[in-house]
Design a protein that fits this description.
InterPro entries: T3SS_substrate_exporter, T3SS_substrate_exporter_C. The protein is about 40% helix and about 15% strand. The chain has about 90 residues and is α+β, with helices and mostly antiparallel strands.
Length: about 90
Amino acid sequence: MKSRKDEERRAAALTYKQGFYAPVVVARGKGVMAEAIIACAREAGVYVHESPELVNLLMQVDTDAFIPPELYRAVAEVLVWLYGIEQERQ
């Protein structure tokens, strides 16, 4: 049986800029903080991708730190998918 804590929503936000060797975790949190991260993203027009498994891994990365090499492939797949969505909108 899941406790209330197990069901608490989690979120992580990434950024990637030219010149960076990997994306950076710019925000992460659970509960109220996760809801705030998601609300800010939506207000800014940023697509919110839901992947509990990936978020759980990103929650282990310090804020303002590059993602570890073990997550490159998973994050790259999300970015490629997101790029496709953005191309369809244009």
